[in-house]
Amino acid sequence: MKNQKNTNIKSYFVDLNDYQIINEINRGGFASISLVERKKDRRQLAAKVDFGNNSANKGKNISREIAILMRIQSPTIIRFYGFSLHDFQGNLNPTILMEFHKNGSLRQLIDNEIHGDDKIMTGTQKLILIYGIAAALSYLHDHGIIH
């Protein structure tokens, strides 16, 4: 029997007062990503704060994203820890907590490989990365999710 992820939405609510922001990692037009740390055990996570598009679609889009994250489970997809309907300042900006990778994001790896002075990935590492991306997309498509 496959490992089923918990789909009880209440179990994924988090109190952002239990976390502190370490620093902002990235910011785009619709969201920011920050490194946060849980105060009780110093676990570091990434917090995605959705502050863009204040239309009715914003709630629908974030609800869809949370529903997807709650039900997917694959070693090739970043782990979802929970969410809050508010940001760290108490504003109505949904915040999603996810696994944090010290090596940075996929975008950072690619940018560094293209523009960095040192090529950091071997050919084998690049193939492993490509296989991981393909496996993640295959998993999502098998579960009716188009990314």
Q: Can you describe this structure?
A:
The protein has 147 residues and is α+β, with helices and mostly antiparallel strands. The chain contains 3 helices and 5 strands, in the order βββαββαα. The chain has a 5-stranded antiparallel beta sheet with strand order 1-2-3-5-4, covered by helices on one side. A hairpin with a 5-residue loop joins strand 2 (31-38) and strand 3 (44-50). The mean pLDDT is 86.
Summarize, please.
Helices cover about 30% and strands about 25% of the residues. The protein has 3 helices and 5 strands.
List the main descriptive attributes of the protein structure presented here.
147 residues, alpha+beta, 5-stranded antiparallel β-sheet, 3 helices, 5 strands
**Number of E-type strands:** 5
- The pLDDT mean sits at 86
Residues in helix, %: 25-40%
Instruction: Please trace the helix and strand order, writing H or E for each element.
Output: EEEHEEHH
Number of helices: 3
Q: Radius of gyration in whole Å, from Cα?
A: 17 Å
Sheet with most strands: 5 strands, antiparallel
Q: Determine the strand fraction and express it as a percent band.
A: 15-25%
Shape: globular
Which structural category fits the helices and strands? alpha+beta
Numbering strands along the chain, what is their spatial order in the largest sheet?
1-2-3-5-4
| N→C terminal distance | 26 Å
Low-confidence stretches: none
